[in-house]
Amino acid sequence: MARKRSHEIKVRLNDDELKNFVARLEKYQLSRQYFLRTCAMGIPVVPPEYLQQIYAELHHQGVNINQIAKALNSKSDCSDEYVHQIKEAQKAWQQLNQLLRKRL
After folding, report:
1. 45 phi and psi angles, rounded to 5 deg
2. CB 104 within 8 A of CB 48
3. Alpha-carbon distance 79 to 74, whole Å?
4. What's the rounded mean pLDDT across residues 76-95?
5. Cα R_g (the chain), whole angstroms
6. CA distances, 66 to each of 60, 71, 83, 91 (Å)
7. Are 35 and 25 in contact (CB under 8 A)?
8. For a 10 Å CB count at each end of the chain, is N or C smaller?
9. Could you count the other beta carbons within 10 Å of the beta carbon of residue 11?
10. Where are the domains of the chain?
11. What per-residue string of b and e applies to 26-65 under the rule 16 or more CB within 10 Å gives b?
12. Cβ(58)–Cβ(100) under 8 Å?
């Protein structure tokens, strides 16, 4: 069941504040509600183009991790510690990837 938001907060802004606020909404491509909730919770608002760059780099790192994992798995003298480290790196990559996908 979706969480209901039953409380409303009204805020008054002067012309300059509204102009600044609208400019930020356009820059971040977010709704007013999402932007305000994010700021209220202390979560940094990141510009979408920056997230795209992070996602692209994360994708490249994921490809590198997979290539390393394949190379290690194909060798019989591969230590269990290396395999464990690669699996941990893959988990971290997947978690970051999921977080970024939620923000894009």
Report:
1. -95, 120
2. yes
3. 12
4. 76
5. 21
6. 10, 9, 11, 12
7. yes
8. N
9. 9
10. 11-45, 48-103
11. eebebeeeebeebeeeeeeeeeeeebeebbeebeeebeeb
12. yes
Specify the amino acid at residue 28: Y
Q: At 39, which amino acid appears?
A: C
Where do we find the tokens 């194909």?
A: 74
Amino acid at 102: K
Task: Name residue 83's amino acid.
Answer: V
pLDDT tens sequence across 16-73:
999 999 998 988 888 899 889 888 888 888 777 777 777 788 888 888 878 777 777 7
* Tokens of residue 20, six digits: 């600044």
Q: What is the DSSP letter of 47?
A: -
